[in-house]
Specification:
The protein has 629 residues and is of the alpha+beta class. 23% of the residues lie in helices and 31% in strands. The strands form 7 sheets. Strands 20, 21, 22, 23, 24, 30, 32, 34, 35, 36 and 37 form an 11-stranded mixed β-sheet that branches. Strands 14-13-19-10-11-18-15-16 form an 8-stranded antiparallel β-sheet, with no helix packed on it. A hairpin with a 4-residue loop joins strand 7 (176-180) and strand 8 (185-187). Helix 3 runs parallel beside helix 4 (121-132). The longest helix is centred in the last third of the chain and has 16 residues, at 613-628. It starts with 13 loop residues before the first strand and ends with a helix.
């Protein structure tokens, strides 16, 4: 969202020349957080002998495990008398709400692009948001020291992307910095492909930020206006609001007008005020225009609300984000093994309270009621965003039943429209046919194909969002783990028709008990198994994938009949194929329409929505009779 517009004459406006607010945006894994690390080190934020983790801003456990940024965070570096507030944003479009909030806090953007991969779908996404906000762009070609770098072609591709996104003349005249963020080096001179920048520090980047990003502009006569763009929490202070001050000054202990989302205005007191220095929040007495501050003392404040002058309250526009494209049902765990983990949270009230808390800080999420009182429909930007929510709740001790992701449709001119994604695929040439066939059966259509002459091909498709549910596992299988795929929301198009689901069925346990190695040895020729010997199973639990299209009820607890005949062969346990252990994302991808994932703090299991085999048979019969009728 662009900075609020003011109608006063430009001559009356003042600037904060000692301050720059900049966001770093890029595709996943193009080096945003690594660049922030180097900027912090070179600005003297850490002692020379300090032990600091790599990607220090990725502080969340999930961020470290997945190697991606999930939450937008801000830091501040002081360099040559200039304070640079840096907002590190996620590169994955599923967390686009974080990107949009981050852009509402800044006056300019550093766009990172990999010197080998070039602009990818999420580069397009973050750049489109930047251009819509009317912000100036600094292009940083990162990883120029890669052996497969192709700097000139990537720069040309970036210009094409700017033109394609209707950039203005001012926006397209962007400065270019060539960098190796991991080495902490940047230069304005283009190096040869695969070589380091000719400068041994980041001074050129700091200089370009100072010259290109405009200083914060404010009206000295205007009353206080501070926009809440993010939320944090402290066990001591309670809810903390992160705000960008646009006009006026805000002080600790001051009475301010809290302009709420519903239009009401309430007088509140700012009990604590903090400014960011490097990675620390430092207590401050006051803050002025352009500052990004943390405020405590308002327990129910929400993102998008405004803190204003109590004598002249002027609320700023609410932050708006793109609508969700994917939904899934989240409910309480109803399996026979529910509640077996000590201290787990299993009741509907606890699950609903946790979902409501998530809505406070996640503006791109929606939670809707369903026909069942213990199940809710949760809508988000994409599969990954919803899977991260479920994984976070699992680690907090919640037990859940999670349904298969589905596309959120809308009606346009009396016709059903569905979300469509732009899919970018990089694969070795020998897998070109397999990938094209895989996408075409999912109603995808190819837009372009580029051969870089290195044995790799880049394919661009437009695919319905529901066609990409479960795509990644099959894609990695077809390309023997070598393919790279990224996708980003493109828009809505008319319903593309039926898409064939999973080509395989499920092996479903027909009774409760412990999985037995003897039974598993006899079952593994039917398909691949998901459980290990000794695992507790129950009727309706999915224990494997059937190699045929239909489901098969199996007795995985069957034991060998004891005889007095000694066998010369080894035990079955030694001849068992190791089970396929599914992660949460893989389990959600695997689910068919009548299946769901049971998520507990200690395990992720797959099960049929209806556990009783006879009842499932009756439902199948009713469905087939309805089709014949």
């Amino acid at each position: 969202m662009p900075a609020p517009q003011t109608t006063i004459p430009t001559s009356q406006l003042a600037t904060r020349d000692d301050l720059r607010n900049v966001a770093i945006v890029a595709h996943v894994d193009h080096g945003k957080t690594t660049l922030v690390d180097a900027m912090l080190w070179q600005s003297g934020a850490f002692r020379a002998n300090a032990h600091v983790n790599e990607r220090v801003l990725d502080s969340n456990d999930l961020e470290r495990e997945k190697g991606i940024t999930i939450l937008a965070k801000n830091t501040a570096v002081k360099h040559g008398g200039l304070t640079v507030n840096i907002v590190d944003t996620p590169g994955h479009a599923d967390f686009g709400g974080e990107v949009e909030r981050g852009l509402s806090m800044v006056d300019g953007v550093v766009l990172l692009v990999d010197a080998s991969e070039g602009p990818l779908p999420q580069t397009r996404f973050v750049l489109r948001k930047t251009l819509e906000a009317g912000l100036p762009v600094i292009l940083v070609i990162n990883k120029v020291d890669r052996s497969d770098a192709r700097i000139a072609e990537v720069v040309d591709a970036c210009y094409e992307l700017f033109i394609d996104l209707d950039a203005s003349e001012q926006q397209i005249e962007f400065p270019i910095v060539y960098a190796a963020a991991r080495a902490g080096r940047a230069s304005l001179n283009r190096p040869k492909d695969g070589e380091m920048p000719d400068n041994d520090n980041l001074e050129p980047l700091f200089d370009v930020i100072r010259e290109t990003v405009p200083p914060p502009v404010y009206d000295p006569a205007a009353p206080l206006q501070a926009h809440v763009t993010n939320l944090d929490a402290s066990s001591y202070l309670g809810r903390i609001a992160l705000c960008r001050v646009y006009n006026g000054t805000i002080s600790r202990g001051q009475q301010v007008a809290w302009c709420r989302r519903d239009g009401s205005i309430e007088r509140v007191k700012v009990s604590e005020l903090f400014l960011t220095e490097a990675l620390e929040r430092v207590q401050a007495d006051s803050a002025g225009p352009g500052d990004i501050v943390a405020i405590a003392g308002i327990p129910d404040i929400m993102i998008g609300e405004t803190l204003a002058d109590p004598n002249d309250p002027r609320p700023l526009p609410l932050i708006t984000v793109d609508e969700p494209a994917i939904s899934m049902t989240i409910g309480t765990n109803t399996s026979p093994l529910a509640g077996q983990v000590k201290g787990s949270k299993v009741t509907a009230r606890l699950v609903k309270d946790r979902l409501d808390r998530e809505l406070v800080g996640n503006v791109s999420l929606q939670v809707l009621a369903t026909e069942r009182p213990d199940t809710w429909e949760v809508r988000g930007r994409g599969e990954l965003a919803l899977a991260v929510l479920v994984e976070t709740m699992r680690r907090e001790g919640y037990e859940l039943s999670v349904g298969r992701p589905a596309a959120v449709t809308r009606e346009v001119d009396g016709k059903v429209h569905e979300p469509v994604e732009r899919l970018s695929v990089d694969v070795p040439e020998e897998y070109l046919g397999a990938v094209t066939q895989l996408v075409s059966v999912r109603r995808g259509r190819m837009e372009s194909m580029t051969n870089h002459g290195t044995g790799w091909v880049r394919l661009i498709f437009l695919v319905p969002s529901r066609g990409l549910i479960g795509f990644r596992t099959q894609f990695l299988t077809e390309t023997r783990g070598t393919g790279i795929a990224h996708h980003v929301f493109e828009g809505y198009e008319p319903w593309a028709g039926a898409i064939r689901g999973r080509a395989t069925g499920s092996l479903v346990a027909d009774r409760s008990g412990a999985a037995n190695a003897y039974a598993m040895f006899n079952l593994q020729e039917r398909g691949s198994l998901f459980v290990s010997p000794g695992t507790e199973v129950y009727e309706g639990m999915i224990v494997g994938e059937n190699s045929r299209t239909d489901d098969m009820d199996v007795n995985i607890t069957k034991e060998r009949k004891v005889t007095n005949i000694r066998q010369s062969t080894g035990e079955e346990l030694e001849r068992l194929v190791p089970p396929r252990l599914l992660s949460l994302e893989q389990a959600l991808e695997f689910c068919a329409e009548d299946e769901c994932a049971e998520v507990t703090p200690s395990a992720v299991r797959l099960r049929k929505t209806v556990l009783d085999a006879k009842e499932r048979g009756r439902i199948r019969g009713r469905v087939s009779r309805g089709e014949q009728a």
